[in-house]
């Protein structure tokens, strides 16, 4: 085969033609990457809601290990104010939390929400009380923004300075006398995904996995996944999140969720590892 003329080779490789791949900009790795503090608070909130599906001991160990593994500057900037302990006495607040829990329950289990509560009561009269008030109302339903206002915020550690433009820089609680900053919120869809992932990984609870797979679909059907306080900050990728939730609620997305959980569980020791 004839060789290319030197002038042709030179023309092909001329700098003006940009003949070779352009190196990625130095900041490309940070594009669309959430702030580490926001990501850590979101992961921590997922871990807390796992109490309802995997139990208290595992959640304690998981959250302790997660905190210990965080970089010191990130750990120092985490919100330290509780968001679910109502000021006392607060009958109106408790009633509001109960209503929020019942609304979440109805959204997940409709049109069988009342029938399921009756079935739980037949197993034990306090079972629906514990599930509804101890889990759906207090834990699984995202807390209202005003529940943590009376709780002090721990002072930031040495590396806890918030820089302008960072997550938390414009949150309440950064200045003297301000209210505590709001903890991360999972929102309706990510709460269902947390339930699906926890239950699938532990094994032996297929009926509950089915319930929460349908629960995710119902979040799309009734629009509750769009409620304020979801997994992304306001205005940050809202359209992409909307499309993603709809895909995850479909058959293809549901299979992807289950297979992803299976692959992670298998790598860590196999399906049903939570029972070990």
UniProtKB/TrEMBL annotation:
InterPro entries on file: AhpD-like, PTS1_Protein
Chain segments carrying region Disordered: 147-183
Biased composition (Basic and acidic residues): 168-181
The protein's name: Dol-P-Man:Man(5)GlcNAc(2)-PP-Dol alpha-1
Species the sequence originates in: Escovopsis weberi
Lineage: Eukaryota, Fungi, Dikarya, Ascomycota, Pezizomycotina
């Amino acid at each position: 085969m004839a060789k290319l003329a030197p002038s042709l080779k030179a023309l092909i490789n001329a700098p003006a033609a940009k003949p070779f791949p352009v190196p990625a900009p130095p900041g490309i790795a940070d594009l669309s990457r959430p702030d580490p503090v926001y990501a850590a608070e979101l992961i921590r909130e997922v871990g807390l809601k796992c109490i309802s599906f995997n139990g208290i001991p595992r959640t304690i160990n998981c959250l302790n290990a997660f905190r210990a593994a965080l970089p010191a500057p990130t750990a120092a900037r985490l919100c330290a104010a509780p968001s679910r302990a109502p000021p006392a006495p607060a009958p109106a607040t408790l009633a509001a939390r109960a209503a929020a829990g019942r609304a979440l329950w109805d959204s997940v289990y409709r049109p069988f929400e009342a029938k399921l509560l009756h079935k739980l009561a037949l197993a034990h009269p306090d079972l629906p009380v514990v599930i509804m008030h101890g889990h759906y109302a207090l834990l699984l339903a995202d807390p209202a923004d005003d529940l943590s206002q009376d709780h002090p915020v721990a002072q930031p550690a040495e590396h806890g300075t918030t820089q302008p433009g960072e997550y938390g820089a414009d949150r309440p609680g950064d200045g003297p006398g301000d209210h505590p900053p709001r903890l991360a919120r999972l929102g309706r869809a990510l709460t269902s995904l947390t339930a699906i992932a926890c239950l699938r990984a532990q094994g032996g609870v297929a009926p509950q996995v089915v319930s929460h797979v349908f629960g995710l679909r119902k979040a799309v059907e009734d629009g509750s996944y769009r409620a304020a306080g979801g997994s992304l900050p306001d205005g940050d990728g809202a359209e992409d999140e909307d499309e993603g939730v709809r895909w995850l609620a479909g058959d293809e997305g549901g299979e992807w969720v289950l297979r992803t959980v299976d692959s992670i569980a298998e790598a860590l020791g196999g399906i049903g590892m939570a029972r070990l």
